[in-house]
Amino acid sequence: MATAAEWLEGARPRTLPTAIAPVLAGTAIAIADSGACWGLAALCLVVALGLVIGVNFANDYSDGIRGSDGDNRVGPLRLVGSGIAEPAQVKAAAFACFGVSAVAGLIITIVTGHWWFIAVGVVCILAAWFYTGGSHPYGYAGLGEIFVFMFFGLVAVGGTVYVQTDHVGAAGWVAACLIGATACGVLTANNLRDIDGDRVSGKHTLATKLGHQGTRIFYLVLVTLACVGVVAVAALTTWWTLFGLFAIALLVSPVRAMVTKATGMALVSALKNTGLAELVCSIGLFVGALVG
């Protein structure tokens, strides 16, 4: 039986910035536009956290039963792959998290009256499950970064803005793109770390297609676009949102890891710091919008 600490590790708390950051960034745009609705913002956060934790458990389950998390894996504990939790338990945990997101999303729908949000929520849950689930997971076809950009960038940030203001606007879409790019950076660092094990297990991520050098270049392009995006948001809203560039301090170490061709466990800190950089960037946007 897995312990509570092992379940917590299996939830992969280091990935939670990818849930928190889009809501903070979207709320920052709402503040700069016409003012935030804090209750709806809190519900958006519940939706995002449920989806991220749910997809982590779903990946644990799907990769575990496929044997993708075998001896060649580098990285944090996997519940199914390590054999400390039954696959059915992990699958149930994933759908419990999706259920929490669905309830919070339904409340948002009722409050705002935008019933088409239900369709968006269904698509988000399906995307979370079929990332590594089903007979043809898109995460095994090198499409993970595309879907992360869409759902953790465009949908998460744009949705948070729309829920609170009934529109998105140019600043909202730019913020969505920069957060999406940083979230892709998190996944890219993760897949670069696992690239050799994924090749052995037959998991075809974008990293396995680009190779070590191509993946490093792709990561550098992503974080550069994110920084440029912060400047663009500041130009469209208030220059105080340049606080988001404080994230650069956390990106120095991951960028160095990419340039010096670090591999394996040496990339764990790059993954962690990229996630923290995304969070700090969103906090900077949020605080800047409040000050502005």
Structure description:
One of its GO terms (cellular component) is plasma membrane. Its EC number is 2.5.1.74. There is one protein chain. This protein has 292 residues and is mostly helical. It is 74% helix and 0% strand. It contains twelve helices and no strands. α2 (17-33) runs parallel beside α7 (144-165), α3 packs antiparallel against α7 (144-165) and α9 (195-201) packs across α10 (206-236). The longest helix is centred in the last third of the chain and has 31 residues, at 206-236. The radius of gyration is 18 Å and the shape is globular.
Which range does the strand content fall in?
Answer: under 5%
**Radius of gyration, whole Å:** 18 Å
What overall geometry do the principal axes of the alpha carbons give?
globular
Q: Could you estimate the helical fraction of the residues in percent?
A: over 70%
Quaternary assembly: single chain
What are the low-pLDDT stretches, counting only 5+ consecutive residues below 50?
none
What value does the average pLDDT take? 91
Order of helices and strands: HHHHHHHHHHHH
Number of beta-strand segments = 0
End-to-end Cα distance, whole Å, is 51 Å
